[in-house]
Amino acid sequence: MLQILVRKFLEVTLFLLFITFISFLFVRLAPGDPVLTILNVDELSVSREQVEALREEMGFNKPLLVQYGLWLFRFIQLDFGQSYVTGQPVADMIAMSLPATLELAAGSMFVMLIVSIPLGSLSALYRDSWIDHISRVTSIVGAAIPSFWLGLILIHLFGVQLNWLPTMGRDGFMSLVLPSVTLGLAISSVYVRLLRSSLLDSISQEFIRAARARGLSEGRIFFVHALRHSLPPVITVFGVSLGSLIGGVVVIEVLFAYPGVGKMVVDAIRQRDYPLIQGYILVMAVIVFVVNTCVDVSYRYLNPEMKLKERNTP
Fold first, then answer.
1. Torsion angle of alpha carbons 46, 52, 58, 61, nearest 10°?
2. pLDDT exceeds 50 at position 313
3. Which is more confidently placed, 301 or 188?
4. Neighbour tally for 35: CB within 10 Å
């Protein structure tokens, strides 16, 4: 157990060092001058001396490695810095916007589950039937439709034509419906096909035939044995595709003017707000690492074969 904890600690340390350095380098090399953004002027309306003075005050005249070292030292002290635009602490701004993003991600995952699990299960149980054909066609169409286009269609239908749901902002549960459905439907197509394939593989295994020979009911065989055996590949793909989910949340937040960290970082990129961009990247990297760690743990729980291999390994 101690070896696993030490290994995870080293992994997260190296992971954060790599992510923070790469993000710091790319953000600094991006076109645009944050000094002019802070002064809210263009190059013709301010003297070069004023620009250089502010650049020196903010440390932009130092080498990139020195700037990164200073930022990393502050980060170790849990100081993410202050926003260049608002002057507020970056940690406070992220803490205020993160709950909205987590709500949207949770709502999207809920929609994905209630769509992909029934469709994938029925498609596997009734293979080559009309249910299977409809499920596969639906998943292919869903994969081909961009999430922002689907969002625009839902906005026009349910927000403009029918006037049933709000289309902008975050004002209660109803404001969460359209963005959650948009992102949930966009990502569910992948999991419908993956769950179908994994279930078909599980149903053909020897332990399923042995369970039927023991007289177990089909419902117990499906939910307790087949479905559990088919979940590890699905969970693994979810861990790998988490970055795509985060990217989708950013697009949906901008489309629906949802006040989460995705919309916040898009505004920060436009304004060259370096501390806010770096804080966002760091928080998202930690979330991705934590989720992937949870995926590894759940994989060991759902796959008894892995436990046996670990026990038999000297």
1. 150
2. no
3. 188
4. 21
